């Protein structure tokens, strides 16, 4: 089935024009009507907060579609691998905002016709636009937030999720992804990063306690680290800023453990500061090659003026994993902890699959959750950085990868 370039331009223009004034619930219907003029039918599926199901956005006048399991459906394969998949006479297209996986776009051609390969590029373009429009439309209301949820979210989790950056960001020569669980009840865990210039920074923190008090402490610490960083402060200065404000805001001496790291992409020097937190892991050539045990200081919220950074040299292709103690201290029904050795083994096994960084992390987090008996006793956060251009390319759809290589 051949489609002229002109009609695709009309579809994109209609989406953009209508997006200025639409309400969040209009997105699915506007897209499907515009696609209908090309003889196509399109349905948007968004990934839920726990990244287990793809949930359809409603289309007026059409029977509601059912949620699809990421781990057992062609749509989930498209989401996981960031690659278009053709199955059952339809095309499933990965939907990203930049490199943050939002879900998939289902594209159906008229009955009796096969999904033509010439649809691949324009469908990926439309899916990318829809991913961007979902992100910019979400702050207008609750509809798109609710579409991505399988159950209500606690107030503490609501606070933290709105402070966090996207789960995945890639630039030319590295990719970074993060996961937080339990998605609807996270309390004191948080993460942050900045990918500006040649010295990206990464943070994982864990405020003591549970519920809203822990969420508030995490929010204070995160805001202080950002403010100090944006004022030009180095890692120790950022930590001191968090110390000062946590002491000021919480008379009960609430604190947060954290790892702050900065990677010099020109020299490979990784500078890091560990404020009472589990030690990060370095993966090299598919094997855990090091545990970062230096650079230690007291937790944030407890002044430690003598603290200094540690340094190691990373190599292109290395992976860096930051995590909270909710990962290693997760217990199975017998009481056995997941532990650092099991974490290292699981990381190596998933790395051997050659998956995109966010998919490696999604599967790793689900492995930790499956280890436990019942709901997690503590929040768990994972942040994974891979320093390679290949890792960055694997987080965008195939035609975008080809364009990047040609340029």
Automatic annotation (TrEMBL):
Kindly state which keywords UniProt assigns to this record, in alphabetical order.
Answer: Hydrolase
Official protein name in the record: Stage II sporulation protein E
Q: Which InterPro entries match?
A: Bact_Sigma-Reg, PPM-type-like_dom_sf, PPM-type_phosphatase-like_dom
Native organism: Couchioplanes caeruleus
Per its UniProt entry, which superkingdom is the organism in? Bacteria
Q: Which SUPFAM superfamilies match?
A: PP2C-like
Which residues lie in coiled coils? Answer: none
- Is Disulfide bond given among the entry's keywords? no
PANTHER family, from UniProt?
A: STAGE II SPORULATION PROTEIN E, STAGE II SPORULATION PROTEIN E-RELATED
- Which ranges carry the PPM-type phosphatase domain? 173-387
Q: Name one GO molecular function term.
A: phosphatase activity
């Amino acid at each position: 089935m051949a489609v002229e370039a002109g009609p695709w331009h009309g579809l994109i223009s209609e989406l953009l024009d209508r997006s200025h004034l639409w309400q969040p619930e209009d997105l699915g219907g506007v897209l499907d009507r515009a696609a209908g003029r090309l003889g196509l039918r399109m349905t948007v599926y968004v990934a839920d907060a726990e990244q287990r199901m793809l949930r359809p956005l409603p289309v007026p006048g059409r029977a509601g579609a059912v949620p699809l399991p990421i781990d057992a459906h062609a749509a989930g394969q498209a989401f996981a691998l960031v690659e278009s998949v053709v199955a059952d006479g339809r095309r499933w297209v990965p939907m990203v905002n930049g490199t943050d996986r939002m879900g998939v776009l289902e594209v159906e051609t008229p009955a009796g016709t096969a999904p033509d390969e010439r649809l691949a590029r324009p469908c990926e373009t439309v899916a990318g636009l829809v991913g961007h429009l979902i992100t910019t439309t979400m702050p207008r209301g609750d509809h798109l937030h609710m579409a991505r949820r399988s159950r209500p979210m606690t107030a503490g989790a609501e606070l933290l999720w709105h402070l966090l950056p996207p789960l995945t960001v890639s630039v030319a020569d590295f990719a970074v992804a993060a996961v937080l669980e339990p998605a609807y009840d996270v309390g004191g865990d948080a993460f942050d990063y900045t990918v500006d210039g040649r010295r990206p920074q990464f943070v994982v923190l864990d405020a003591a306690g549970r519920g809203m008090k822990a969420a508030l402490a995490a929010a204070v610490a995160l805001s202080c680290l950002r403010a100090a960083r944006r004022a030009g402060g180095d890692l120790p200065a950022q930590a001191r800023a968090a110390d000062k404000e946590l002491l000021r805001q919480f008379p009960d001496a609430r604190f947060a453990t954290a790892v702050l790291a900065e990677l010099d992409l020109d020299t490979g020097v990784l500078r890091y500061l560990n404020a009472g937190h589990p030690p990060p892991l370095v993966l090299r050539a598919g094997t855990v090659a090091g545990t970062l045990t230096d650079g230690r200081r007291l937790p944030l919220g407890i002044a430690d003026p003598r603290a200094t950074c540690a340094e190691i040299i990373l190599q292109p292709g290395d992976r860096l994993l930051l995590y909270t103690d909710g990962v290693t201290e997760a217990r199975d029904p017998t009481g056995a902890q997941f532990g650092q050795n099991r974490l290292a083994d699981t990381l190596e096994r998933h790395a051997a699959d050659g998956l995109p960084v966010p998919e490696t992390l999604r599967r790793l987090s689900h492995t930790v959750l499956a280890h436990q008996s019942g709901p997690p006793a503590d929040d768990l956060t994972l942040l994974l950085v891979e320093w390679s251009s290949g890792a960055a390319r694997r987080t965008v759809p195939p035609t975008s990868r080809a364009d990047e290589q040609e340029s």
